[in-house]
Amino acid sequence: MAPQRQLFSFCIFSVLSFSTITSGYGGTLPDNKPSTQRFAPMYSYKLGKSVPQEAGPERFSLHTLGSTLQSKRMVTNPFHPIHNVSGARPSTPAPISVDKFGAKGIDHTDDTKAFQKAWLEACSSNGAVVLLVPPHRSYFVKQFTFSGAQCKSHITMQIHGTIMAFEDPKTYHFPNKSKQQYWLTFERVQNLVVEGPGTINGNGEKWWQSSCKQNNITRTLVPNCNNDAPTAVTFKTCNNLTVHNLNFEKAQQKHVSFENCTDVKASRLRINTSEASPNTDGIHVTETKNIDISMSRISTGDDCISIMGGSQNVYVANIACGPGHGISIGSLGRGGSEDHVSDVTVFGSRLTGTMYGVRIKTWPGGSGYATNITFQMIQMDNVTNPIIIDQNYCDTATKVINGECKPPPLQKNTAVKVHNVMYQSINGTVSKDGQAIVFNCSSVPGGACEKIVLDDVRLEKGGAAVCSNVKPTYSRVDLPLNRCPNQ
Ligand SMILES: *[C@@H]1O[C@H](CO)[C@@H](O)[C@H](O)[C@H]1NC(C)=O
Ligand SMILES: *[C@@H]1O[C@H](CO)[C@@H](O)[C@H](O)[C@H]1NC(C)=O
Ligand SMILES: *[C@@H]1O[C@H](CO)[C@@H](O)[C@H](O)[C@H]1NC(C)=O
Ligand SMILES: *[C@@H]1O[C@H](CO)[C@@H](O)[C@H](O)[C@H]1NC(C)=O
Ligand SMILES: *[C@@H]1O[C@H](CO)[C@@H](O)[C@H](O)[C@H]1NC(C)=O
Ligand SMILES: *[C@@H]1O[C@H](CO)[C@@H](O)[C@H](O)[C@H]1NC(C)=O
Ligand SMILES: *[C@@H]1O[C@H](CO)[C@@H](O)[C@H](O)[C@H]1NC(C)=O
Ligand SMILES: *[C@@H]1O[C@H](CO)[C@@H](O)[C@H](O)[C@H]1NC(C)=O
Ligand SMILES: *[C@@H]1O[C@H](CO)[C@@H](O)[C@H](O)[C@H]1NC(C)=O
Ligand SMILES: *[C@@H]1O[C@H](CO)[C@@H](O)[C@H](O)[C@H]1NC(C)=O
């Protein structure tokens, strides 16, 4: 029996406000709403088992959606003196505005130094402090790391205006080309809040044009292409982090990445970038434990959400995704690496016009596992591959020659094991050329897909199920044509 998880659950109020968000995308949530029922992940596959809990740490309402101008977090500590900024009373320290440090918010004026000074001021403050990016202007900022190792207190960064990257890749400096590159990084900041309602814009079109993974119709490789495009915003080694009510646009590559963090809440993020942009994942999670991602809508050129190795206890709920490549676990095991992902729940979400719905992808030759994964209450509209496990994943940037991934995996006889995966209450339509279910599992002994369960799955149109090396368990499953062989 699985120990019951302390994952938060939803009240009907949050669901109602979510359908209001998604209606901007031409629809509302499915009629069969999660209602007042509360769900816990069901790793033991005892169907209908749910644990009533208190509502989640944040209750969303229509009222709070648009009005976060006032920070809820301006708490003060009576035992610490507070910087007397602009004559404010100690009990309500005035926000530290980047303008005070000379930020101009004028087209193409470099405000990086002002951000740096403002961050140092906030970081050295003894009491809880608000760092403000004022409204109505666009602040151009170069690569910058908001380093928190020396910070003394809780910082809330309020972004009301826009933080903008310079568009020319030549303005970036990467000392080590073989590493992942970054634009804005929050590193080792504890108890950080980053909130909107403003925008972070990666201004990434020039990067897209030189990408090796052209995601447009021709799919031709660009001469002198590069894969160096930076991630727009990275949170690295942050514990107790909240990121909410922010807009992200035109990331150079991924939009938001959580790396090596614990206890993260990401909510009400709006990511809207061209479908033709390459590698522009919406929210990327790697080596991160205890993360809730909720109430967000994501339109982009790659995965709306990607969950990578080292991630544990990931809860994704109320996401509207599309266009994009859906919600993915992986790719795992790339280049023969060992990856572990466990306890992932994707709940109450809607995918519209995406290439994939819910996907698990692993490279041949890797090792480790993806386990205890639940996809529940998910609506698919016109999705090409709504349910997919691919243990023979080979990125399009790598060549597939005669059905083999080139360069070939270092070890041929290993696979990232995929087990305990539950698909429950998944409804919707498959696109014209799509396939409802693809389980392309590994033939490696002991590495294949195990304990794959489908319950209450109804997918209309599109092609049949395509399966190899898997024997799923079905109940209440209604697919267009056939299904994979039963156990
Ligand atoms: C997956 O869930 C099972 C059943 O609850 C549990 O025994 C196992 O430890 C979990 N695996 C991981 C890696 O968390
Ligand atoms: C804060 O600054 C104002 C104006 O500069 C001053 O009058 C006040 O005494 C200061 N308060 C504290 C607690 O330093
Ligand atoms: C660049 O980064 C890679 C990967 O982290 C590392 O192996 C290599 O030593 C680094 N090279 C330099 C010059 O720092
Ligand atoms: C987490 O961070 C928030 C915001 O800074 C703070 O109010 C809260 O006390 C922190 N929680 C813990 C357990 O430190
Ligand atoms: C699409 O591909 C062509 C040919 O490589 C390239 O010139 C163009 O910039 C690409 N468009 C986008 C939006 O990436
Ligand atoms: C990951 O986080 C832990 C603490 O949470 C830290 O000790 C470690 O140095 C971090 N690893 C990297 C690669 O930053
Ligand atoms: C997303 O961006 C496109 C192009 O800028 C725009 O037409 C569309 O309205 C945006 N969608 C949302 C939901 O903001
Ligand atoms: C799918 O449809 C069936 C029958 O109409 C319903 O029982 C189930 O709750 C629906 N699930 C979702 C996720 O929409
Ligand atoms: C379904 O998606 C395809 C692209 O995958 C698009 O061409 C088509 O117009 C969509 N159909 C509907 C009904 O939205
Ligand atoms: C599984 O993936 C391999 C490699 O991409 C491909 O050649 C094969 O056709 C796929 N099998 C199914 C059943 O889709």
UniProtKB/TrEMBL annotation:
Top EC class, one word: hydrolase
Biological processes per GO annotation: carbohydrate metabolic process; cell wall organization
Keywords: Cell wall, Cell wall biogenesis/degradation, Glycosidase, Hydrolase, Secreted, Signal
Active-site residues (renumbered): 325
Keyword DNA repair: no
GO molecular function, one term: polygalacturonase activity
Signal peptide (UniProt feature, chain positions): 1-26
Subcellular location: Secreted, Cell wall
Major location (coarse): secreted
Family recorded in the similarity comment: Belongs to the glycosyl hydrolase 28 family.
Protein name: Putative polygalacturonase
Organism, scientific name: Rosa chinensis
